[in-house]
Amino acid sequence: MHMIDPSGAQPADPPPRTGRAGAADWALTLPTGIACVCAALMMVTTFLDVLLRYFVGRPIGGAFEITELSMGLLVFFALPSVMMRRENIAVTLLVDRLTPRTRAVLAALGDLICALVLLFVAWRMGLHGARLLRFNEVTMELAVPKGAIAQTMAVMLVVAALSACLAAWREWPRPVATPGQG
Questions:
Q1: C-alpha 28 chain-centroid distance
Q2: Alpha-helical regions (H) of 56-139
Q3: pLDDT at 77 exceeding the cut of 70
Q4: pTM surpassing 0.90?
Q5: Angle, vertex CA 137, rays to CA 134 and CA 138, nearest 5
Q6: Most buried pick, 84, 122, 149, 175, via CB within 10 A?
Q7: CA-CA distance, 99 to 50, in Å (whole number)?
């Protein structure tokens, strides 16, 4: 997340991420790629559905469900990357007046609170998905198991919570070495 300095000074580039943090960034390329596939599927389905409806008079069967499921999965597969990169919305009215160290602590604590909320929602979503699976609930046109979709979303919420924890760890201020310490 980049903050704008009211004095007009340009922020320094963040240090490059290496080691475990870099590996975590790399690991999130799969869920992000799946989110991109969901977005592309929605676009292609909508385009072809409109085209076929207009020229042939026959829409794609289940196009609404494809779009609906793709949108839901897109959000949940993109969430871990959003949390890791701290690209969520942040209101910084008062934060800009704090010291950089205090801002970092507050950002890390915010990430941890987000992680707790995500874990709570994942738990509830997992319970709901289990209930849907138990009753063999499926979508109306394509017969996609609703419980499997809910369980997938719950797993992605857990991954997003882990991403938020890692973002908090990255943001937490490190002790500053004072001169004379070796």
A1: 10
A2: 63-85, 100-134
A3: yes
A4: no
A5: 140
A6: 84
A7: 54
